UniProtKB/TrEMBL annotation:
InterPro entries: RNaseH-like_sf (IPR012337), RNaseH_sf (IPR036397). It comes from the Bacteria. The keyword Coiled coil applies. It comes from Paenibacillus amylolyticus. This is Integrase catalytic domain-containing protein. Keywords: Coiled coil. GO terms for molecular function: nucleic acid binding.
Amino acid sequence: MVGNFVSIFSDIKFPTILDVSNRSILGYSVSLNREYGGSDVMHCARNAIMPHKRLELTIPGLSYHPPGGFPSEKFPELEWAVWDVICLDNAKSHYAKMVQDRLTNLIGCTPNFGPVALPMRRGVIERYFKTLAENLFHRLPNTTGSGPDDPRRNNPEKNALRLNITYEHLLQLIDVMISNYNGTPHGGIYHQTPLELLEKRIQLRGLLPRRLEEEKRSEMLFMQTRINRTVRGSLLSGRKPYIQYEGVEYRSEKLTNSAHLIKHELVLHVNVDDLRTLKAFLPDGSEFGYLTACGRWSLTPHSLQTRRAINSLVQRKLIHYTTWDDPIFVYTDYLLSKENTKKSINKITQVKEVSKQKLTDEAEEQTKALEEARAQHELLDKVREEQINREKINEMDNYERLLKQFKTKMY
């Protein structure tokens, strides 16, 4: 919002963006990693800017309080509203190339990094997280408390399993808690609710927030990073042109027919939440089109983090997949075969959440590329099945022929 500072901090792998002028929470994200990364930060920024939608609650007795809500949900003027300055602590994820690029070039704000080891500068957000911990997380039966000696800590993992507390339950609790927080009187703003103060500034002072441009209102743009890759291939050996990214080859019909691009660089826009396709541009900035991951990598949505985890396991010879296997399924099966540790369960949840993604209508060319890849895989599966059936029939014919050859006649 114009002239306002927005703070972001994560003390419990829970990045949150707060407007310090009125104490309202604009958006959040939940990280299942040991340390939240750049993609978690951009998920948080995306959720703060896009119009918020309430979750469908499945927990009995849990409800949104009418006075509460998110700013983008309550006020149409704040849909796609952005800020000018964002205050960040010195976490490594805030220095990620993607985060700095998206904050500056997409959102159009200035990152303001505070001094190291001075939490007093972030007093507002620190107080919010203390409120969140006391009113939500420490009241759950599976709480780990504030430390190993906290009396509230009582077999948290067993309680979570016994009560069947799921990731979806956690998301619902957090969303309701923050929604209700925005509608609760706050002592720091003269016992007004954050939404009340925000409404006064909109109606009485004529607050007109800067809004994200129409052409930038895409979920994918928030999770996009830019890289350069050299086109590989060989005219002598007949190797068709391709580019390689994170251990996987990417091709397209257009690239196959562009042998003149071999040994030249393409600029690639990578959606770190979905590596099935990459959008390519020529060095002069003109759009080249989408490249699709080869093999079964193009079937199931997967993130950059999942791709790197799979490649690491392959290099360590802990998993193996063939041309006919979906690497994401092989990876999930491997995690399921391990003990039900918190780490493996979190990774499975991450894979499931990413695989739920759906392509937006605006990416027609991307959708077309993935549909063509899926149709090709279905055709290959059909041909393979027919070949296997023919081999079985041939084996039976050979077996019957051998029986006839060695059959003894009975007199």
